[in-house]
Write a structure and sequence with these properties.
The protein is of the alpha+beta class. It has 19 helices and 24 strands. It has 2 domains: about 15-245, Aminohydrolase, N-terminal nucleophile (Ntn) domain (Glutamine Phosphoribosylpyrophosphate, subunit 1, domain 1); about 265-320 and about 325-475, 3-Layer(aba) Sandwich (Rossmann fold), CATH 3.40.50.2020. The strands form 6 sheets. It has a 7-stranded antiparallel β-sheet. The chain has a 6-stranded antiparallel β-sheet with strand order 5-6-7-8-12-13, with no helix packed on it. Helix 6 (about 140-150) crosses helix 7. Mean pLDDT is about 90; it is low at about 1-5, about 325-330 and about 475-480. Bound molecules: iron/sulfur cluster. The site of iron/sulfur cluster (SF4) has 11 residues, from helix 9 and helix 18. Keywords: Glutamine amidotransferase, Glycosyltransferase, Magnesium, Metal-binding, Purine biosynthesis, Transferase.
Amino acid sequence: MTYEVKSLNEECGVFGIWGHPDAAKLTYFGLHSLQHRGQEGAGILSNDHGQLKRHRDMGLLSEVFREPANLDKLTGTGAIGHVRYATAGEASVDNIQPFLFRFHDMQFGLAHNGNLTNAESLKQELEQRGAIFSATSDSEILAHLIRRSHNPNLMGKIKEALSLVKGGFAYLLLFEDKLIAALDPNGFRPLSIGKMANGAVVVSSETCAFEVIGAEWIRDVKPGEIVIIDDNGIQYDSYTNDTQLAICSMEYIYFARPDSNIHGVNVHTARKRMGAQLAREFKHEADIVVGVPNSSLSAAMGFAEESGLPNEMGLIKNQYTQRTFIQPTQELREQGVRMKLSAVSGVVKGKRVVMIDDSIVRGTTSRRIVQLLKEAGATEVHVAIGSPALAYPCFYGIDIQTRQELIAANHTVEETCQIIGADSLTYLSIDGLINSIGIETDAPNGGLCVAYFDGDYPTPLYDYEEEYRRSLGDKTSFYK
Ligand code: SF4
């Protein structure tokens, strides 16, 4: 579904480059491919012979850099950039990244994708020791930890700081003489490294950014790894050996662009396999398959191929409506669905439709789409979801952090089906999801985090633990 209506949002996208005369411009194009990961604000920080320059603001990338001068002033051969969707910290320009820290003896920039689970306790501790935070997001914490470390060398300081922050994080740090990328010990968020023809090294949340700038993928950053990029090339190091891959399965289901590859798996192909598996688990009679544009179209293709039903364009997305994610009320959100989607009566009229969507969050959007299809003449609407039911909150970088918001946390499948007005509701099984993605790894759950679905978090929840336990009440698990 459209990112905004569903209110299921990635925290951010990051992009960095070292060793190219057009570093900031290439960062702009890289970020442009990552815009789906955050539309609230954007920024680029460049490095011109050790001088760090920055422009950032609220809005889409094209709005932030509407004035060419804002990009032209970012000279230099190294840069990092960021597109933001806020999960932690309020919507304000102070929270737009990259952050820039200037000290009497050094300066560096920072861009972060993810969510720290011990941010509150670290922040309190740091403030008690005199630290002053300029933003309300959790992304500044690492910079304070680096600066306050007593380790005598910079890499030692960075490693120490990285071992203190917990949760999901992909960091890019731009220093006067190097670019550093680091990933959390579970690799919750994706981060890939590429190379350009002139030898410049690029780092991106998603590989789709490499295509745009003509870079070649080298490899993905591993959990617990630090990648140091400077004029001598790339160096791989780690700050912990206690690692286990648990990449966010929602990246494959919903967030990442279909043309991105994550840990050797193409996102579109994974979605097609999810759709095919969903068809095998689906138990109803139908005439046509209709995917909800855009992120469910790959799964709809897989479902149609496997089931032998025709894959029809029964829903059209209006590409030119205003972003609606800033609309606060439920009523406006519901209106937002109508602005974005139309059912094609000539296609669905008189048909039993299998409506494929990637997930159900609150149920509002699904109810509206079912209604649209029925109003357009569909005789039956069977909703088939290309992921298991979202019954638990995420603490690693997705913006739903309370169970009350999730329809599946509070209702059975039958109740949910009734609420959304469908004739049947089928979710993909957790095993079906894991097998469909198929990362080559020995890690549990096929190297995926599936905590959204089973509540089995790969790490302690630190500051969120108590609140989460309280929210569980007597409903300990949706599946058990
Ligand atoms: S809890 Fe869900 S959204 Fe969060 S990292 Fe795990 S799979 Fe992704």
